[in-house]
Amino acid sequence: MLAAMTSIDAAARYPHLFAPLDLGCCTLPNRVLMGSMHTGLEDRARDFGKPAEYFAARARGGVGLMVTGGFSPNLAGWLKPFSSRLSSRWQVTPHRRITDAVHAAGGRICLQVLHAGRYGVHPLIVAPSAIKSPITPFTPRALSGHGIERTIRAFARCAALAQDAGYDGVEIMGSEGYLINQFLAERSNRRRDAFGGSAENRMRFAIEIVRRTRAAVGRDFILIYRLSMLDLVERAQAWDEIVALAKQVEAAGATLINTGIGWHEARVPTIVTSVPRAAFTWVTREMKEHVTIPLVTTNRINLPEVAEDVLARGDADMVSMARPLLADPDWVAKARSGRASLINPCIACNQACLDHVFENKRASCLMNPRACYETELVDAPVAHARRFAVIGAGPAGLACATTLAQRGHAVTLFEQSGEIGGQFNLARRIPGKEEFAEPLRYWGNLLAELRVDVRLRSRADAATLQAQAFDAIVVATGVTPRDPRIPGQDHPMVMGYHDAVMGTREIGKRVAIIGAGGIGFDVAEFLTQVPPSPATDVARWTREWGVDTSREHRGGLVKPSPEPSPREVWLLQRTAGRPGRRLNKTTGWVHRAALKAKGVKMVGGVTYEKIDDAGLHVTIGGNPQTLSVDNVIVCAGQESNRSLADEWTAPGIAVHVIGGADVAAELDAKRAIAQATRLAARL
Ligand code: NAP
Ligand code: SF4
C-alpha cells in the first residue's frame, strides 16, 4: 500500500503544501520553512562542519527554505557571552561551509539576525529602557540615540555580511520579546525621544532596520521579518499597531513576514505538547487582508495533514516548522513521496531541544538523537548481518529494534503486552499529551516496513532465547512501579498509576496522589480535566489560558477562564518545598500553572503514616492530619526490571541492557531512546 503510493498521489493529497512559491527573487519548491531554532551549533565557528551537515541533511530532505539559529549583529546583542555573532568580515568565511553544503544539497538558507536586548544573559545588555526582564538576571542599559543608530547599522551590516557568506537571505528577529519587540511595547519602552511614546515612534526602530537592511543587500535577497502578531504579555502592542507595523515592514522591503507568537516571558504556553495543533494560525489569517507579501504561520504544526489544512484554509502562504525538522530531516521528502506515515514525529516535549538550549547544552531531539549529531552519531558499517533479539517494545526497545533493522540486521522484537509503546501508552492517554500516540504510529509503520519480526504477548525467557540462537540480546524490559511501603497500602482505595490511567478502576471525587514526579503531575492532569482534552479544541484551550481572539485587547490577553476540576486532588511528595521544581525547564511551569488553575493542592514535606477507611493519614510540618479521600494513587517512581539480564547464563551471546531496565532513576524517554540508538548504531 505504502510502496504503491506515488509522488503524484502525494502532491494530490497535499496540493497546497507542494505548490511552489514565487518570491520574486527566487521560487521556492514548497511551502515549508524550517524555522529558526538555536541549537548551540551556531556558537562554535571552528566547528561549523557540524551545522553544515545538520542543515545539508534538511536541504536533502527537501525543505523549501531554512533559517539558521540567531546571530547577533553586535556584542551587546549576544544571547550569552561568546554566543553566535556576525559583525566582522573575519567571521564570514566559516559560514561558507554552511551555505556551500546547503546549496550543494539543493537547498536555500537565510541567516537570522537576532539582537537579544534585555533577554541577553550577560552584563553588556542594552534595551530601549533600563527595565529588567522577569526572566533574566541583568538590568539592561538604555540605548542612547547614537546607540540606536549604531544598532540599526549593525543589523544592516550583519545582513550584508550574511550575503557575502553566501546566504540566500536573512530573517530579522522582531518577535518573542527580543530587542526589536522591546521597542514596540510600552512594557519595555518608556523612551521620550523619537523611538518611544507613540506607536509610530515605537515602531521606528523596526522599520528603519528593515529599510536599511534592504538598502544594504539589494533587491535579489530574501528578507524575512519575524513579526510578533500576539505578544501575550501585558502593556504590549494593540492589534491596529501590529497591522500598521506589518504594512510598513512590507513597504520597507520585506519579502516575507513570519509570525511570532508570545514573548519568552509570557505565561501562556505557545509551543508545548498541550497547546493544540495549529492553535495560533488564526492570527496570521487575520493579517492576510492587510499585506500583499506572503505570510508564514507557525507554532504546533507538526505533520503534513496539519500543514496542508492550515494552507488550504488560507491561514498563511507558508508554514514554519523548526522542531519537526529536527525530529525528521526527511519530513518533506517523505510527505512528497507518499511516505508520510513514516515521518518521525515531533511530540513538542522540548526535552532534548529547547530544554537543552536553556541549560547551555547542544540541542538534539528526543525522537531523533542524531539531530545536531549528524557527523557523530553515525552507523558503523555492517560486514555481516546478524540476528538480534530485542526484549521489550517500549521507546528504548523500539528505537533499538528499528535502528538495528535499518542497518540490515535481522531483528526479533518480543513484547509481553498486546501493544507496542511501553510507557508512551500511558502518556498518550493524559490530556494534553495526545501527541505521544504519534511515535507509536511511526514505530509501528517502521517495524512493518523494515520487516522486524514483532512478537506481541510473548514473554521471552532465557531458555527460549538461548534455543533460538540469537547472536546478541538487547534487554529493554523497562521498569516496575516502586513499592512505597506505606502501612495499609493494600486497602481497596489504593491503586497504581497504571490502573488509574488505563481506566481499569473507578476513581472517586477526592483523590490523593503519592509522588509528585512527572507521572504524579500527569495523573493529576488526568484527574482534573473533563474530556475531551482542551488540547484538541483550540477555542476551549484559548479560553482556558486567556488568549484574546477578538483582537480587542493589548497583548492578546484576556482573563483566563479554566473549567473547574471534576475532582478535589492532593499531589504530595516527601521532599520539602513545592512539588514540580524538578520538572523540565521549558514545560514544568505549564504543568504547575495548569494544576494550580484546577485547584490541585500541591504539598511538599509530607510523611505518609497509614491508609485506612478514613483515608490517607499524613504528617505535614509536624501536624498529623487525615486526608479523607476516596482513592490514593501511587506514583512513587520506578525500579529497573532487569531480571532477564541478571539471570542470563548463556556464554558467547552478548547481552546489552538499555532504557529503564538499565537505570530506572530519572527514567526518561530521552535517555532511553538516545542510549538505544547509540548502541544499535554500533552493534
Ligand atoms: P520521579 O520523577 O522519580 O518521581 C517519583 C516521585 O515519587 C517523587 O515525587 C518522589 O518524591 C516520590 N517517591 C520516591 N520514592 C518514594 C517512596 N518510597 N515513597 C513515596 N514516594 C516516593 O518518577 P516518575 O514520576 O515515575 O517519573 C518517571 C520519569 O518519567 C521522570 O523522571 C520523567 O523523566 C518522566 N516523565 C516526565 C513527565 C513530565 O515531565 N511531565 C511526565 C511523565 C514522565 P519524594 O521522594 O519527595 O516523595
Ligand atoms: Fe520535538 Fe521533543 Fe524532539 Fe524537541 S525534543 S524536536 S520537542 S520531539
Q: What is the average of the pLDDT values?
A: 95
Structural class: alpha/beta
Assigned CATH class of the largest domain: Alpha Beta
CATH topology of the largest domain: TIM Barrel
Number of domains: 3
| CATH superfamily (homologous) name of the largest domain | Aldolase class I
CATH architectural type of the largest domain: Alpha-Beta Barrel
The number of helical segments is: 23
In terms of per-residue confidence, which ranges show pLDDT below 50 for 5 or more consecutive residues? Answer: 1-5
Strand content: 15-25%
- The level of helicity is 25-40%
How many strands appear in the DSSP assignment?
Answer: 27
* Cα-atom radius of gyration: 26 Å
Q: Give a list of the ligands.
A: NADP nicotinamide-adenine-dinucleotide phosphate, iron/sulfur cluster
Strand order of the largest sheet: 3-4-5-8-9-10-11-12
Sum up the overall morphology in one term. globular
Instruction: Give a quick account of the main beta sheet: strands, pairing sense, barrel closure.
Output: 8 strands, parallel, barrel
> In whole angstroms, how far apart are the ends?
32 Å
